[in-house]
C-alpha cells in the first residue's frame, strides 16, 4: 500500500511539472522560469518540443494523470490485495521512463540544452518506475474481513 | 489511509498555488528593450559591417530579426555571399535595423544583437538568432532563449542583462528604423548597393549579388598610372 501511495504522490508532483510546461507551451505565463541558463526556452522552442503534432508536455500531463488515477484506484480497499495493479503501474512507469530517456537523449546530444523542469520530470518518473518495481517484492496487503474484524466472543 | 488523502490534498493545494505564482510572475522582455523609445537620438552609429573598408561595393541590408525571409536569407544565402564576395574583398556588407511594427519581438531581438555587439559579438549573436528562428513562430517571450543564445555567442551575460534592462540601444535602433523610412524601405530585407535601393521581385540569392558586384567592379574607373 505504501508503494502505491508513494506513486500517487510522485505522480501528482509530476503532473504539476508537466502541466506548467504545457501551459507555457500554450503561451500562458510569459517566459518560463528556468534559472540563469535559459535552456528551457531552447528546448521548448526546438522542433523536438512537438511530438506527433502535440506539445511533448501534453504527453507528460496525460501520462502522469494516468499513473495518478491508477495509483488512487489501486488504493481502494477492494484493490489492495490485487497484484495486477502493481503490474499496471510498472507498465506505465516503464513507458514513461522510456519516453523520458528518449527526450533526455535529445536534450543532451541533439538540442545541446538542458531544461531543469525536464530534469525534474525525469527524476520523478524514474522514482515512480523504481517504486513500482519494488512493489512486486512487498507482501500482499490483507484486506479480507476476517482479518480486520475483532475476534468474536461467546454469544450472550 | 485518511491521513494519506489529507497529505495528498495539501500537496495538491501547495503545487497549485506554486504553479499559479509561477505563471503570474512569468516575467517578460524588458520594456526598455522591447518597445520604441520616447525620444530618438543619433549616436553616430551606422551599422555593423562585414568586409574590408576598401571594398569597391557596399551593400546595406535593412533587416528585421523576426522576419522569416530575413532568417532564410541569412542562413541560406549569406554563407555563400561571405565566402565569394565579402571574404574576397569585393563587397562590404552593412547591417541596419528595420524592426517592423507587425513583429512583437523584432525590436527586442535587434536590441539583443546590439547588446552582444558592444561586446564584439554582434555577428555571432545574429547567427544564433537566425539559426534558432523557431522562436519567431511561437509568439512567446524569447527573453530567456536570447540569454542562452547570447551565452552561446560568447556574450558576458551580466553585462548583457544590464544592457537589456536599460534598453541602452533602443534609440539607436529607432534611429535606424527612421533612417530606413526616409530611404523608402518598405519591407525586409531591403538592400542598397552603394546607396542605391535594389528592387527585387523575389528574395535575391548569392548569384544576384555576385552579378551586381561583378557589374560595378567591371564599370569602375581604373586608376591611371602615374608618370
| Averaged pLDDT of chain B | 89
Q: Largest beta sheet of chain B, briefly?
A: 5 strands, mixed
Q: What's the count of strands of chain B?
A: 5
Distance between the termini of chain A: 38 Å
Morphology of chain A: elongated
Low-confidence stretches of chain A: 144-149
- So what's the overall shape of chain B? elongated
Oligomeric category: heterodimer
- Major sheet: arrangement of strands of chain A: 1-2
Order of helices and strands of chain A: HHEEHHHH
Explain what you see.
The complex is a heterodimer of chains A (156) and B (227). Chain A has 156 residues and is mainly alpha-helical. Helices cover 64% and strands 3% of the residues of chain A. Chain A is built from six helices and two strands, in the order H-H-E-E-H-H-H-H. In chain A, strands 1-2 form a two-stranded antiparallel sheet. The longest helix of chain A has 28 residues, at 84-111. Mean pLDDT of chain A is 82; it is low at 144-149. In chain B, helix 3 links the parallel strand 2 and strand 3 (91-97). Chain B has helices spanning 2-24, 31-34, 68-86, 106-117, 122-131, 135-138, 143-152, 157-166, 170-182, 206-219; strands at residues 48-50, 57-63, 91-97, 190-193, 196-197. Chain B is α+β, with helices and mostly antiparallel strands. In chain B, helix 3 (68-86) packs across helix 5 and helix 4 packs antiparallel against helix 5. Chain A binds chain B through residues 5, 8-9, 12-13, 16, 19-20, 23-24, 27-34, 36-42, 45-47, 75, 113, and chain B through 1, 4, 7-8, 11-12, 15-16, 18-19, 22-29, 132, 134-135, 138-149, 151, 157.
Name the features:
heterodimer, A: 156 residues, mainly alpha, 6 helices, B: 227 residues, alpha+beta, five-stranded mixed sheet
In short:
The complex is a heterodimer of chains A (156) and B (227). Chain A has helices at 2-25, 39-44, 56-74, 84-111, 116-134, 145-148, and strands at residues 50-51, 54-55.
Write the layout of secondary structure elements.
The complex is a heterodimer of chains A (156) and B (227).
Chain A: H1 2-25, H2 39-44, E1 50-51, E2 54-55, H3 56-74, H4 84-111, H5 116-134, H6 145-148
Antiparallel strand pairs in A: 1-2
Chain B: H1 2-24, H2 31-34, E1 48-50, E2 57-63, H3 68-86, E3 91-97, H4 106-117, H5 122-131, H6 135-138, H7 143-152, H8 157-166, H9 170-182, E4 190-193, E5 196-197, H10 206-219
Parallel strand pairs in B: 2-3
Antiparallel strand pairs in B: 1-3, 2-4, 4-5
Helix pairs in contact in B: 3-5, 3-10, 4-5, 4-8, 5-7
